[in-house]
Amino acid sequence: MRFISTLAIFVIGVTTLFASGSGQAGRTALNSAGCSGSGCHGAASSANPATSVRLVQAVDGKISAVVGETLSLTIVVSHQSREAAGVGIAVKTTEQGTTNAGTLGFISGEGMRLSAGELTHSSPKALFGNEASFAFTWTAPSQPGTYYLRAIGNAVNGDGSAGTIDQWNRMPVVEVVVGLPNSVDEYSDANVVVSPVPAHDQVSMTVPTQANEQLQITVLDHLGAVVASDNAIASGESFRYTWNGRGNDGSQVPQGAYVVAITSNRKLMKGRAIIIR
Question: Are residues 174 and 207 in the same domain?
Fold first, then answer.
């Protein structure tokens, strides 16, 4: 599978991460204390799946870049009942390592700051529609290789104090494959309208193509898991895809938000579908 040069990372379910409300670095690794422990805004000693954190445009847990390329990324955190979220983001040379890879950058107005080469929230961000998004940038190193993007989110009640009601979780580690310009596909990235929105069963999207262009269709749920996949060959200058609202096992998917992504050799075309039952 080929990956995206411009990335959007959605992290679901994070609220005020730390007791100070301004976040701490060094909390993303699986062998760390996470959002529990000294100085953090979480009394729970273990991750809670009620909070979800994801990189929405990662496909099968991977993204790609060219050496020196700057990617625009967004992490979305979601929780069904908490008020706000915080986040910690790191890119490392190994899955559990401490050595930073590339350069993370914060975007003005996104409520984040740099600390020890990592990103953390500078203040809690309110959840809207049970989600809080954090946009940022990452510049790939000059050395090709596989690097590891880690994120942690904390969904909180907004009272400013640590407690077990604040629930944190880690994002599954995302592999970042960095290659030379002649070895990594450079994608154009476009948002495409999906209709109808919302839908009760099937949705459709039309994308620009070339005759005989090979296409891969992937439908991802709000956690970034692949629920449906397909392959097709375009017959002309446009291709219309209709998803029947069913997973690969043939069963109806639960109601909720989904991303429909159509990828070709050098294009990523994606749209958001909402299924209600």
Answer: no
